[in-house]
From TrEMBL:
Keyword Zinc: no
Alphabetical list of SUPFAM superfamilies matching this protein: S-adenosyl-L-methionine-dependent methyltransferases
Residue ranges of every copy of the Methyltransferase type domain listed in the record: 89-184
Organism: Mycobacterium saskatchewanense
Protein name: SAM-dependent methyltransferase
Gene Ontology MF term list: S-adenosylmethionine-dependent methyltransferase activity
Xref: Gene3D superfamilies: Vaccinia Virus protein VP39 (3.40.50.150)
Swiss-Prot/TrEMBL keywords: Methyltransferase, Transferase
Pfam families, sorted: Methyltransf_11
GO BP terms: methylation
């Protein structure tokens, strides 16, 4: 992470930020990450942050979807058209396991901002996935500290089902997306088969996850005026991409 990336990102923020542990923090040390459920507590655990990128995520997401991490990253880069994006925002970036590979595909002069509320995850991101064109920011995704139409590409992979207000976060993602920009999310999926839906919903609730049907984010993006809405469902996960009209 370069000083240029830090200062460029600071200029994009609508709230003051302090540089701590290598990332910009708009929340401050006094505000701890909210973690009322088991799943949210796990994402704020230093231990999970350490094993997440190499063990936890690749294994759990492959089981949930049958898609490898490498294939996920290639799909994300294609859906977001990152080769032509100047600014990319990775919401709930965790330890930066998608932020860095996406940043590497940006054109010369591009900037990737990894955004998360978890200090352990961001500390890990700075340690493991820093690069000259990346800056990490700590904040609350329910109120993204960026002006309207700031980014050419916005994504959130594997986190909306953890959040207390996922649709508000998705609306914020659309708000900060520029006309002509692309948005993509990877989140939970429950098929419209009553026994399967009941089993998945029950298990998810026990650990604090939300299962979404096939219409939730497709309808949200369509209602927000996005176009070219495309969806892929795989086992217990769904990938949705869309574009904001130019």
């Amino acid at each position: 992470m370069s000083q240029d990336a830090v200062e460029t990102t600071r200029g994009l923020l609508t709230e003051p930020a302090v540089l701590r542990h290598g990332f910009l923090d708009v929340l401050g040390e006094s505000m701890s990450s909210p973690a009322p459920t088991f799943a949210q507590r796990a994402m704020n655990s230093p231990f999970v942050a350490t094993v997440y990128e190499r063990l936890w995520r690749p294994t759990s997401f492959y089981v949930a979807s049958g898609v490898t991490t490498g294939a996920e990253q290639r799909r994300a880069a294609s859906a977001l058209q990152v080769s032509t994006a100047r600014r990319l925002l990775d919401v709930a970036c965790g330890p930066g396991n998608f932020t860095r590979p996406l940043a590497e595909r940006l054109p010369h002069g591009g900037l990737a901002v990894g955004f998360d509320i978890s200090e352990p995850m961001l500390t890990r991101a700075v340690h493991d996935n820093s690069a000259p064109r990346i800056c990490y920011v700590r904040g609350d995704a329910r109120s993204l500290p960026f002006a309207d139409a700031t980014f050419d590409a916005v994504c959130c992979f594997g986190a909306l089902y953890l959040m207390p207000e996922p649709f508000r976060v998705a609306q914020e993602m659309v708000r900060v997306l520029r006309p002509g920009g692309r948005v993509a999310v990877l989140t939970s999926y429950t098929p419209d088969v009553p026994p399967v839906r009941f089993a998945l919903d029950t298990g998810a609730r026990l650990i604090g996850l939300t299962m979404f049907d096939r219409h939730a984010f497709v309808d949200l993006f369509s209602s927000a005026g996005l176009v070219d809405v495309a969806q892929q469902t795989q086992r217990a996960l769904q990938f949705i991409a869309a574009a904001k009209p130019g």
